[in-house]
Specification:
Length: 189
């Protein structure tokens, strides 16, 4: 009888073990899915930041190649003002047999750069003269590539119900906009 009652006590234990195992597996799979989602988000952020660096290198190389017109490479706009409406007029040179002067080439470079920034989400750019104390360096330029990282600061979510709640990037030109990230580089031709 003793053997009979112990087998009765173990009935249903296997089912409980299976249920606990399934619960542990479900939690593990949810954790794995969360890690995969985070990895994808960080990969997208890294890709956008790489594109921002490429955009800064593009205009830096143009400034270095056309250093006689370095003073023309200025667009000291904050994020809100650096729109396509602020594009310089096309100098209509450099095609066919017409050649560009150094100043026209600088305007064309700025226009091409601002248009290429549209590949970034909310991509915009600014180029400013560098001031140290009261003196402005006539040749050195600060290049700022700006974009929106909406993966982290998506408006309308529980974490960020409005754009003013998104953190600002202190490296961006003032006035800073929530959710906008900036990459800054200095170039001296």
């Amino acid at each position: 009888m003793l053997g009979h009652s112990s087998s009765k006590a173990q009935q249903g234990v296997t089912l409980i073990e299976i249920l606990v195992t399934m619960l542990i597996m479900a939690i593990g799979l949810l954790g794995t899915a969360g890690l995969q989602l985070a990895a994808t988000r960080y990969q997208q952020t890294a890709q956008i930041r790489s594109q921002a660096i490429i955009q800064a290198q593009f205009i830096a190389e143009k400034i270095k190649a056309n250093n006689s017109a370095a003073s023309t490479y200025l667009a000291p706009d904050a994020y809100a003002a650096a729109t396509l409406a602020a594009l310089p007029a096309d100098p209509n040179c450099g095609t066919g047999t017409s050649f560009c002067t150094a100043a026209q080439s600088a305007v064309k470079d700025m226009r091409d750069w601002r248009l290429s920034l549209q590949a970034l989400p909310g991509g915009r750019g600014s180029i400013m003269a560098v001031t140290v104390g009261a003196a402005t360096d006539p040749a050195t330029r600060q290049i700022v590539v700006m974009w929106q990282e909406k993966q982290q600061y998506e408006v309308g979510t529980a974490a960020t119900p409005n754009p003013d709640a998104a953190p600002t990037d202190p490296t961006c030109p003032a006035p800073q906009v929530g959710g906008v990230r900036c990459f800054t580089a200095l170039v001296t031709p």
